[in-house]
Amino acid sequence: MIEGIFFDGETSTKKASVLHYDEQGYISFTDLDIEKIHINLIKISTRLANTPRYLNFPDGSLFETNNNDAIDEMVQTFKPSFFNGLLHSLESAKTVVIASIAIVVLSGWLLIKYGIPYFSNEIAAMVPADASKYMGQGVLDIMDKNWFEKTRLSAEKQAELRLLFKKLIKDIDGGENYKLEFRQGGVIQANAFALPNGTIVFTDELINLAANNMEVASIMLHEAGHLKHRHSLRSTVQQFSLAMFVMVISGDVSTSSSIVTAIPLMLVESGFSQEMESEADTFSLDYMLKHNISPKYFVTMMEKLEASYSDAYTKCLKESPKDVDKNKCIEKSIVAKKGSGDTKKITDYFSTHPNVKERIKRFREAS
Amino acid sequence: MGYEDTNTDNTITNEPFEFTGKASEYFSIWIVNVTLTILTLGIYSAWAKVRTNQYFYSNTLLDGASFRYTARPIQILKGRIIAFIVFMGYYASSLVSVKGTAISIVVIMLLVPAFVVMSMAFRMRNSVYRNVRFNFDKNYKRAYLVFSIPVLFIGTYLFLAAQIQTANTATPTVDPTLSILVLVLLLAIFLMVPWWEYMITQFKVVHGKFGDANFSFSATLKNYFAMYAKGYGLSILIFALLGIVMAIVIPMLSTKDAQNPMAGIMPGLVIVLILPVYLWIFAYFQTKRTNLIFGNLEVQGHKVKADLKTGYMMYLYLTNTLAIMLTIGLLMPWAKIRTVKYKASVMSIDIAGDLNQFITSQAEQQSALGEEIGEMFDMDLGF
Q1: Could you tell me if A172 and A302 lie in one domain?
Q2: What angle do CA A244, A250, A253 make, to 5 degrees?
Q3: Chain B contact for A60, CB < 8 A?
Q4: Does the N terminus or the C terminus of chain A have fewer Cβ atoms within 10 A?
Q5: Across all residues in chain B, what is the average pLDDT?
């Protein structure tokens, strides 16, 4: 005897009814003029916590009941199967639930820490070099249109640096595809970056900061490290996999604000980016040590670059007369920076680059 | 759940919606779903979705009967695979060129109205109450008409704005009429948002059916303008007040050099001040929108009532956000249950006579494609 409600399949009319079944598995209802039907002909919904069960009859009619235990007993008697309520048993076993929490937390951490970077690396390496020939030109075009101007470096300086660049990439496997470009940075300031098609772009501002060509070389090697490890391709794959992962895990966060996913995403993405910067640093450092180039060049260059972004530098430029040597201000700002503490700030975790002091320390210790 | 038959005279009785889900139950279902999804590299996610929806539908009761979700996991899996390929194509195109990305965005935009229709149809036809299916008229023509107006306006705006930018870089002097035109267009877009939302919501509601009976929608354009006027007005007021507070507080914190320990807490302070405002705006629109949609919905003389409160929704969002953040996501199921429970508790239906008169209609099965692609690109399908 199972109490429930019956729907005829034609209308929404609800009839309270009681289901009976005999030893052969034939089902009938109290107060309803319906022919007996065997249990094998009806579709019974699987158990899901304590939600109602639905018995679907071939003619479209439906019986709905809250008596989960009675339905389970009936199913177990006439249609025994391993899969009956398998998911429900998993969901109601405390050990499974606790193990699941451990699996989710652990595998989530492993996936983010090792899985996604590893697979992205493999996938990036699989893309043929020819395919990346077309990647990145669009980005440079846009930057040219909006921010960059033609370089103002003298022809001699350019030739000097190109010669140096040629020498450096001779010893890098695949380096023959790397190209060097100069631009006047404008708002981009002193900077250098690598595009997936092998183009390394330097701004005039960065070149002017350098005291000698070897300091520029240390940055060339860092950018070559990005190219060598195919970092732009890798970060695209990483972003994609991360987006998929978050979607699968979170499913529905509409009950809270999007900050819930935004902050962890930012943290993980900057973690990925910092890892790639360190990789490029390693490449540069290894190359320098192998070719007897002093890592000091990277140290002095980074100090100047960092100083060029500082408030002290902008302030110094503002206060000084117009024709003053900009490098004097740089030196002043470096000195000011050195006085400040070495502590890691919270904002460092959200940055795309690792802490500059730690990067510099690595090269200083190696020299 | 009482099993006695409902009365058959035509008096109006108010029946509340009831949600019987429990956080502990749903937590178990959710964590097993996530684990199996990870262990099957995402394939189980289709089954997880069905199980989750079944849990929420079946725990929603009205007049002694439950709602039922009938989508098959295989349908959803197919949709997910196709959406995955589309998504990957989009990422690949973004690598190759900016033009490629622009083209794929335009193509996706052109498909949005079709996705919305497919998605609505899939969702409605897989919802059952009292053994009668909900339904959705797949009126693609009307969908494209409704969606084309905002797309045309925004497209024109983007085109003109791009024109100005190129003109700007070429010559420093810009044709003033062009910039005035852009400003006017921007203002028009701003003013027309309520109208578009009204049109789109109305489209979604009036094409909905329960069995053979059409939904009707009694909200007016005026309701939508009022919602936006109040929402925008109050946000501007709050931001102005906040601006004044910040103007006083910031100089106090940064008077000294950069080594001031107080300087470090600035970003945190800004978040603490901005978050409630952001949550309020979010909660306000969410609340009013739900009230407007469901509070104006009627089917065969039975009227739905919805009375969500912005203050309580904001409290829910705030506590949910904090709870989820502090437990690295483990309280997500709890947050969802209590939110749905609240929503159900403030919704009811005025039943004229009884709910026995609906007739089932023959519905063919829908492809899951629209809903899944819509989900992947995070479009707000609302309803």
Answers
A1: yes
A2: 125
A3: yes
A4: N
A5: 82
When computed from its CA atoms, the radius of gyration of chain B, rounded to whole angstroms, is 24
A101 falls within a domain:
no
| pLDDT score, position B104 | 78
Q: Which two tokens stand for residue B70?
A: 């009938």
Q: Which residues have a Cβ under 8 Å from the Cβ of A192 and sit 6 or more positions away?
A: A200, A201, A202, A203, A206, A219, A220, A222, A223
For residue A92, tell me if it sits in a domain. no
DSSP-assigned beta bridge partners for residue A54: A64
User: A302 and A357: one domain?
Assistant: yes
Asked whether residue A77 falls in the same domain as residue A133, the answer is no
Residues A200 and A272 in one domain: yes
Asked, for residue A97, whether it belongs to a domain, the answer is no
In a domain, A94, yes or no: no
Which residues between 135 and 194 in chain B have a beta carbon less than 8 angstroms from any beta carbon of chain A? 169
Of A48, A83, A118, which residue is a domain's last? A83
Of the three residues A19, A48, A83, the one that is the final residue of a domain is: A83
User: Could you give the CA distance from residue A329 to residue A7 in angstroms, rounded to a whole number?
Assistant: 85
CA-CA-CA-CA torsion sign (B235, B238, B244, B250): negative
Residues A158, A282, single domain; the answer is yes
Interface of A with B in 239-268 (CB under 8 A): 239-240, 244, 247-253, 255-257, 259-260, 263
With 0-12 CB in 10 A as exposed, 13-18 as middle and 19+ as buried, what is A82? Answer: exposed
Number of domain units in chain A: 2
DSSP class of residue B146?
A: H
End-to-end CA distance of chain A: 86
Interface contact B65-A64, CB threshold 8 A: yes
Higher pLDDT: B170 or A10? It is A10
Q: Are residues A202 and A323 in the same domain?
A: yes
DSSP 8-state code for residue A350:
G
Could you tell me the pTM of the whole model? 0.81
Range of the domain at A139: 129-366
Q: Tell whether B68 is within 8 A of chain A (Cβ).
A: yes
Q: Do B282 and B298 form a contact (C-beta atoms < 8 A)?
A: no
Given a cut of 50, whether residue B381 has pLDDT beyond it is no
Asked if B97 and B103 count as a contact pair (C-beta separation under 8 A), the reply is no
Tokens of B213: 């009976």
Nearest to B96 among A103, A134, A146 (CB): A134
Which of A141, A357, A88, A201 has the alpha carbon at shortest distance from B33? A88
Which residues are A27's β-sheet partners?
A: A21, A37
- A203 & A346 share domain: yes
Contacts 24+ apart (CB under 8 A), A74-80: A74/A2, A74/A21, A74/A39, A75/A44, A77/A25, A78/A21, A78/A25, A78/A39, A78/A40, A79/A39, A79/A40, A79/A44
Long-range pairs for B47-54: beta carbons < 8 A, 24 or more residues apart:
B47/B73, B48/A251, B49/A251, B49/B73, B49/B76, B50/B76, B51/A48, B51/A87, B52/A251, B52/A252, B54/A48, B54/A51
Q: Do A100 and B27 touch (CB under 8 A)?
A: no
pLDDT digits (tens, 9 = 90+) for A265-293: 888 888 888 999 999 999 999 999 999 89
Instruction: Identify the CATH number of the domain in which residue A65 sits.
Output: 2.30.29.30
- Disruptive mutation site among A257, A259, A337 for chain B (greatest number of B CBs within 10 Å): A257
Same domain, A29 and A150: no
